Amino acid sequence: MTDTNADTQKSPPPLLEFQNVSVVRDGRTLLDAVSLTVREGEHIAILGPNGAGKSSLVRTITREYYPSSPGPDVVFRFRGLETWDAFDLRSHLGVVSGDLQHTFTRGISGREVVLSGFFSSIGLFTHEVTPEMEEKTDEILEFLEVAHLADRPMTGISSGEAQRLLIGRALVHDPGTLLLDEPTTSLDLHALHTFRTTLRKIARSGTGVILVTHNLHDIIPEISRVILMRDGTIWRDGPKAEVLTNDAIGRLFVVPVHVMEEGGYYYAMGY
Ligand SMILES: Nc1ncnc2c1ncn2[C@@H]1O[C@H](COP(=O)(O)OP(=O)(O)OP(=O)(O)O)[C@@H](O)[C@H]1O
Predict the structure, then answer these.
(1) Closest CA relative to residue 227, chosen from 238, 211, 218
(2) Where does the ABC transporter domain start and stop, copy by copy (predicted)?
(3) What is the pLDDT of residues 52-107, one digit of tens each?
Protein backbone atom coordinates (compact mmCIF):
# COMPACT_ATOMS: atom_id res chain seq x y z
CA MET A 1 0.00 0.00 0.00
CA THR A 2 1.24 3.51 -0.80
CA ASP A 3 2.19 5.67 2.17
CA THR A 4 -0.45 8.40 2.32
CA ASN A 5 0.52 9.68 5.76
CA ALA A 6 -1.26 13.02 5.95
CA ASP A 7 1.58 14.66 7.92
CA THR A 8 4.18 14.00 5.25
CA GLN A 9 1.87 15.41 2.57
CA LYS A 10 0.71 18.52 4.45
CA SER A 11 1.98 21.72 2.86
CA PRO A 12 3.65 24.19 5.25
CA PRO A 13 1.46 27.04 6.52
CA PRO A 14 1.71 30.30 4.58
CA LEU A 15 4.24 32.86 5.73
CA LEU A 16 1.42 35.36 6.20
CA GLU A 17 -2.28 34.70 6.38
CA PHE A 18 -4.48 37.73 7.00
CA GLN A 19 -8.27 37.77 6.63
CA ASN A 20 -10.30 40.89 7.38
CA VAL A 21 -7.47 42.52 9.33
CA SER A 22 -8.24 46.12 10.28
CA VAL A 23 -5.96 48.47 12.18
CA VAL A 24 -7.22 51.65 13.83
CA ARG A 25 -4.82 54.11 15.46
CA ASP A 26 -5.76 57.43 17.03
CA GLY A 27 -9.28 57.00 15.69
CA ARG A 28 -8.05 56.57 12.14
CA THR A 29 -8.47 53.39 10.06
CA LEU A 30 -5.02 52.58 8.66
CA LEU A 31 -5.91 49.08 7.39
CA ASP A 32 -9.45 48.26 6.39
CA ALA A 33 -10.37 44.55 6.27
CA VAL A 34 -7.13 43.47 4.63
CA SER A 35 -7.07 39.88 3.36
CA LEU A 36 -3.72 38.65 2.14
CA THR A 37 -1.91 35.33 1.93
CA VAL A 38 1.81 35.15 1.17
CA ARG A 39 3.52 31.79 0.78
CA GLU A 40 7.11 31.11 1.84
CA GLY A 41 9.57 32.00 -0.89
CA GLU A 42 7.16 34.10 -2.98
CA HIS A 43 8.42 37.22 -4.76
CA ILE A 44 5.81 39.95 -4.47
CA ALA A 45 5.51 43.71 -4.69
CA ILE A 46 3.09 45.82 -2.66
CA LEU A 47 2.55 49.03 -4.60
CA GLY A 48 0.55 52.07 -3.63
CA PRO A 49 0.61 55.86 -3.46
CA ASN A 50 1.69 57.85 -0.41
CA GLY A 51 -0.67 57.25 2.46
CA ALA A 52 -2.13 54.03 1.01
CA GLY A 53 -1.29 52.10 4.18
CA LYS A 54 1.81 50.20 3.01
CA SER A 55 3.95 51.05 6.04
CA SER A 56 0.99 50.36 8.31
CA LEU A 57 0.78 46.89 6.78
CA VAL A 58 4.52 46.37 7.39
CA ARG A 59 4.11 47.54 11.01
CA THR A 60 1.24 45.11 11.46
CA ILE A 61 3.41 42.26 10.16
CA THR A 62 6.23 43.28 12.51
CA ARG A 63 3.73 43.56 15.40
CA GLU A 64 4.23 47.25 16.02
CA TYR A 65 0.52 47.65 15.18
CA TYR A 66 -2.22 45.21 16.19
CA PRO A 67 -5.51 44.30 14.52
CA SER A 68 -8.20 46.33 16.19
CA SER A 69 -11.09 43.90 16.36
CA PRO A 70 -10.27 40.22 16.67
CA GLY A 71 -13.47 38.37 15.72
CA PRO A 72 -14.58 35.06 14.25
CA ASP A 73 -14.02 36.29 10.69
CA VAL A 74 -10.54 37.72 11.45
CA VAL A 75 -7.48 35.58 10.68
CA PHE A 76 -4.07 36.93 11.65
CA ARG A 77 -1.32 34.33 11.33
CA PHE A 78 2.41 34.21 10.70
CA ARG A 79 3.59 30.75 9.64
CA GLY A 80 0.46 29.29 11.23
CA LEU A 81 1.07 31.10 14.56
CA GLU A 82 -1.56 33.42 15.97
CA THR A 83 0.98 35.20 18.14
CA TRP A 84 4.59 35.60 17.22
CA ASP A 85 7.53 37.45 18.68
CA ALA A 86 10.59 39.20 17.36
CA PHE A 87 12.56 35.97 17.36
CA ASP A 88 9.97 34.06 15.23
CA LEU A 89 9.85 37.02 12.93
CA ARG A 90 13.52 37.66 12.33
CA SER A 91 14.43 34.02 11.74
CA HIS A 92 11.87 33.78 8.91
CA LEU A 93 11.39 37.35 7.71
CA GLY A 94 14.28 39.79 7.41
CA VAL A 95 12.91 43.33 7.53
CA VAL A 96 14.63 46.40 6.09
CA SER A 97 12.41 49.31 7.09
CA GLY A 98 12.53 52.68 5.42
CA ASP A 99 13.66 54.63 8.47
CA LEU A 100 16.28 52.13 9.72
CA GLN A 101 19.13 53.91 7.97
CA HIS A 102 18.50 57.10 9.93
CA THR A 103 18.85 55.28 13.25
CA PHE A 104 22.53 54.48 12.50
CA THR A 105 23.74 57.95 13.30
CA ARG A 106 26.91 56.96 15.16
CA GLY A 107 30.17 55.88 13.53
CA ILE A 108 29.35 52.16 13.51
CA SER A 109 31.36 50.21 10.93
CA GLY A 110 29.81 48.28 8.05
CA ARG A 111 30.78 45.03 9.73
CA GLU A 112 29.09 46.08 13.00
CA VAL A 113 25.93 46.98 11.11
CA VAL A 114 25.65 43.44 9.75
CA LEU A 115 26.71 41.81 13.04
CA SER A 116 24.14 43.83 14.97
CA GLY A 117 21.43 41.89 13.10
CA PHE A 118 22.18 38.98 15.42
CA PHE A 119 21.08 41.10 18.38
CA SER A 120 18.41 43.21 16.67
CA SER A 121 20.36 46.19 17.95
CA ILE A 122 21.82 49.34 16.46
CA GLY A 123 25.50 48.58 17.17
CA LEU A 124 27.14 45.86 19.23
CA PHE A 125 27.43 47.37 22.73
CA THR A 126 28.36 44.56 25.16
CA HIS A 127 26.90 41.75 23.06
CA GLU A 128 29.17 38.75 22.68
CA VAL A 129 30.10 38.07 19.06
CA THR A 130 30.88 34.41 18.36
CA PRO A 131 33.26 33.10 15.64
CA GLU A 132 30.15 31.70 13.85
CA MET A 133 28.64 35.17 13.74
CA GLU A 134 31.88 36.58 12.36
CA GLU A 135 31.94 33.86 9.70
CA LYS A 136 28.31 34.46 8.69
CA THR A 137 28.97 38.19 8.50
CA ASP A 138 31.95 37.63 6.18
CA GLU A 139 29.83 35.39 3.99
CA ILE A 140 27.09 38.04 3.74
CA LEU A 141 29.53 40.90 3.06
CA GLU A 142 30.97 38.81 0.19
CA PHE A 143 27.57 37.80 -1.17
CA LEU A 144 26.35 41.40 -1.21
CA GLU A 145 29.69 42.60 -2.62
CA VAL A 146 30.27 45.05 0.24
CA ALA A 147 33.34 43.50 1.90
CA HIS A 148 35.21 46.75 1.14
CA LEU A 149 32.78 48.58 3.45
CA ALA A 150 33.49 46.37 6.47
CA ASP A 151 35.64 48.95 8.25
CA ARG A 152 33.99 52.09 6.92
CA PRO A 153 31.80 54.09 9.32
CA MET A 154 28.11 54.06 8.48
CA THR A 155 28.10 57.86 8.67
CA GLY A 156 30.74 58.11 5.90
CA ILE A 157 29.20 55.99 3.14
CA SER A 158 26.51 56.59 0.51
CA SER A 159 22.82 55.78 0.94
CA GLY A 160 23.11 52.91 -1.54
CA GLU A 161 26.04 51.38 0.34
CA ALA A 162 24.23 51.77 3.66
CA GLN A 163 21.18 50.14 2.10
CA ARG A 164 23.17 47.03 1.16
CA LEU A 165 24.63 46.75 4.68
CA LEU A 166 21.14 46.96 6.15
CA ILE A 167 20.03 44.20 3.81
CA GLY A 168 23.01 42.20 5.11
CA ARG A 169 21.87 42.91 8.68
CA ALA A 170 18.43 41.48 7.82
CA LEU A 171 19.97 38.34 6.30
CA VAL A 172 22.06 37.13 9.27
CA HIS A 173 19.48 34.56 10.35
CA ASP A 174 19.01 33.23 6.80
CA PRO A 175 15.34 34.23 6.72
CA GLY A 176 13.24 32.54 4.03
CA THR A 177 11.90 35.96 3.01
CA LEU A 178 13.25 39.51 2.92
CA LEU A 179 10.83 42.43 3.31
CA LEU A 180 11.94 45.86 2.12
CA ASP A 181 9.89 48.98 2.84
CA GLU A 182 10.47 51.80 0.32
CA PRO A 183 14.10 50.79 -0.26
CA THR A 184 14.91 53.13 -3.15
CA THR A 185 13.65 56.46 -1.81
CA SER A 186 17.07 58.11 -1.54
CA LEU A 187 18.98 56.26 -4.27
CA ASP A 188 20.44 57.86 -7.41
CA LEU A 189 20.48 56.03 -10.75
CA HIS A 190 23.75 54.23 -10.12
CA ALA A 191 22.70 53.16 -6.62
CA LEU A 192 19.32 52.08 -7.99
CA HIS A 193 21.05 49.90 -10.56
CA THR A 194 23.23 48.30 -7.86
CA PHE A 195 20.21 47.82 -5.62
CA ARG A 196 18.29 46.05 -8.40
CA THR A 197 21.26 43.78 -9.08
CA THR A 198 21.56 42.91 -5.39
CA LEU A 199 17.85 42.22 -4.99
CA ARG A 200 17.77 40.04 -8.10
CA LYS A 201 20.69 38.03 -6.73
CA ILE A 202 18.85 37.53 -3.42
CA ALA A 203 15.62 36.51 -5.19
CA ARG A 204 17.48 34.05 -7.42
CA SER A 205 19.26 32.55 -4.41
CA GLY A 206 15.86 31.25 -3.26
CA THR A 207 15.02 33.88 -0.66
CA GLY A 208 11.48 35.22 -0.98
CA VAL A 209 11.12 38.97 -1.55
CA ILE A 210 8.32 41.27 -0.39
CA LEU A 211 9.01 44.68 -1.87
CA VAL A 212 6.91 47.59 -0.60
CA THR A 213 7.13 50.62 -2.84
CA HIS A 214 5.40 53.46 -4.64
CA ASN A 215 7.74 53.11 -7.67
CA LEU A 216 6.80 50.77 -10.51
CA HIS A 217 10.41 50.64 -11.65
CA ASP A 218 11.51 49.04 -8.36
CA ILE A 219 9.69 45.83 -9.30
CA ILE A 220 12.45 43.44 -10.36
CA PRO A 221 11.64 40.89 -13.09
CA GLU A 222 11.73 38.03 -10.55
CA ILE A 223 8.61 39.46 -8.89
CA SER A 224 5.58 37.76 -10.39
CA ARG A 225 2.74 38.90 -8.15
CA VAL A 226 1.73 42.50 -7.50
CA ILE A 227 -0.62 43.82 -4.82
CA LEU A 228 -2.04 47.32 -5.18
CA MET A 229 -2.96 49.16 -1.97
CA ARG A 230 -5.34 52.09 -1.78
CA ASP A 231 -6.97 53.77 1.24
CA GLY A 232 -5.82 51.04 3.62
CA THR A 233 -7.26 48.24 1.49
CA ILE A 234 -5.91 45.61 -0.90
CA TRP A 235 -7.35 46.96 -4.14
CA ARG A 236 -5.84 44.48 -6.63
CA ASP A 237 -3.81 41.29 -6.17
CA GLY A 238 -2.66 39.12 -9.02
CA PRO A 239 -0.07 38.27 -11.67
CA LYS A 240 2.12 41.27 -12.51
CA ALA A 241 1.08 41.66 -16.15
CA GLU A 242 -2.62 41.58 -15.22
CA VAL A 243 -2.26 44.10 -12.41
CA LEU A 244 0.12 46.67 -13.91
CA THR A 245 -2.27 48.03 -16.54
CA ASN A 246 -2.74 51.64 -17.71
CA ASP A 247 -6.19 51.68 -16.17
CA ALA A 248 -5.24 50.24 -12.76
CA ILE A 249 -2.07 52.31 -12.30
CA GLY A 250 -3.81 55.45 -13.60
CA ARG A 251 -6.65 54.98 -11.12
CA LEU A 252 -4.30 54.02 -8.26
CA PHE A 253 -2.19 57.18 -8.55
CA VAL A 254 -5.04 59.31 -9.92
CA VAL A 255 -3.10 60.39 -12.97
CA PRO A 256 -3.32 59.33 -16.63
CA VAL A 257 -0.40 56.99 -17.33
CA HIS A 258 0.90 54.70 -19.97
CA VAL A 259 2.55 51.63 -18.44
CA MET A 260 5.47 50.29 -20.46
CA GLU A 261 7.39 47.08 -20.03
CA GLU A 262 11.05 46.91 -21.01
CA GLY A 263 13.59 44.24 -20.14
CA GLY A 264 11.29 42.76 -17.50
CA TYR A 265 10.82 46.13 -15.76
CA TYR A 266 7.67 48.25 -15.78
CA TYR A 267 7.62 52.03 -16.11
CA ALA A 268 4.82 54.60 -15.79
CA MET A 269 5.06 57.13 -18.65
CA GLY A 270 3.21 60.17 -19.88
CA TYR A 271 2.08 61.78 -16.64
N1 LIG B 1 0.08 55.98 14.11
C2 LIG B 1 -0.73 56.61 13.29
N3 LIG B 1 -1.77 57.34 13.74
C4 LIG B 1 -2.59 58.00 12.91
N5 LIG B 1 -2.46 58.03 11.57
C6 LIG B 1 -1.44 57.35 11.05
C7 LIG B 1 -0.50 56.60 11.87
N8 LIG B 1 0.40 56.00 11.05
C9 LIG B 1 0.07 56.37 9.79
N10 LIG B 1 -1.03 57.17 9.79
C11 LIG B 1 -1.72 57.72 8.61
O12 LIG B 1 -2.25 56.61 7.91
C13 LIG B 1 -2.13 56.76 6.51
C14 LIG B 1 -1.36 55.58 5.94
O15 LIG B 1 0.00 55.72 6.29
P16 LIG B 1 1.14 54.72 5.83
O17 LIG B 1 2.41 55.32 6.34
O18 LIG B 1 0.78 53.36 6.24
O19 LIG B 1 1.04 54.86 4.25
P20 LIG B 1 2.12 54.50 3.15
O21 LIG B 1 1.37 53.83 2.05
O22 LIG B 1 3.25 53.75 3.74
O23 LIG B 1 2.57 55.92 2.68
P24 LIG B 1 4.03 56.51 2.31
O25 LIG B 1 4.36 55.97 0.97
O26 LIG B 1 3.78 57.97 2.31
O27 LIG B 1 4.96 56.08 3.40
C28 LIG B 1 -1.44 58.10 6.30
O29 LIG B 1 -2.41 59.05 6.00
C30 LIG B 1 -0.77 58.39 7.63
O31 LIG B 1 -0.68 59.76 7.89
Answers:
(1) 238
(2) 16-256
(3) 999 999 999 988 899 987 778 999 999 999 888 877 888 899 999 877 666 766 67
Domain layout of the chain by residue ranges: 12-262
* ipTM score for this prediction: 0.92
Interacting residues of 97 by C-beta distance below 8 A, sequence separation 6+? 58, 62, 181
pLDDT digits (tens, 9 = 90+) for 125-173: 677 889 999 999 999 999 999 999 999 988 888 889 999 999 999 999 9
Under 8 Å between Cβ of 265 and 254: no
* CB-defined site of ligand 1, < 6 Å: 25-26, 28, 30, 48, 50-56, 214
For the domain with range 12-262, which CATH number is right: 3.40.630.30, 3.40.50.300, 3.30.980.10, 3.40.30.10? Answer: 3.40.50.300
